[in-house]
Design brief:
- By secondary structure, this protein is mostly helical.
- It is 52% helix and 0% strand.
- It contains seven helices and no strands.
- The longest helix is centred in the C-terminal third of the chain and has 16 residues.
């Protein structure tokens, strides 16, 4: 395993000498939150009409969209602009029935997975 991965993921390090073994990492080490539904303040079983009503309420409060260069230069922390971009993405995904079906299937699969996506990504077979 790379040094970067072991420094970022402490559960992948071996136990210290004489220390008890660490407990198994629970499912969802990095939770899938906020989901697109939570970003828009909607339940997961909302209809397309409810989504549009929520978007008409949220959209006027958002700052104007960023150009690709402005988006690239945003700082990494969660600024208001980043939250606005996340909400626009959530609306784009949930507003399209095909994309929403793919997202819902992915969300259900990740929640039901016995291990987190991080562990599956770093697994070496």
């Amino acid at each position: 395993m790379s040094t970067i991965a072991s420094s970022l993921l402490p559960w992948r390090r071996g136990p210290a000498a004489g220390a008890p073994a660490a407990p198994a990492v629970p499912t969802g080490v990095l939770p899938i939150e906020p989901t697109h539904y939570q970003r828009l303040g909607l339940p997961e079983d909302c209809t397309l009409t409810e989504l549009q009503i929520a978007w008409m309420r949220i959209e006027p409060t958002l700052p104007p969209p960023l150009t690709p260069i402005q988006r690239r230069d945003l700082p990494a922390e969660r600024t208001e602009q980043r939250r606005a971009e996340d909400r626009r993405l959530a609306h784009a995904v949930l507003g399209d029935p095909a994309r929403r079906a793919v997202y819902d299937a992915w969300l259900a699969r990740e929640r039901a997975a016995p291990t987190s996506w991080v562990k599956r990504l770093l697994r070496r077979d």
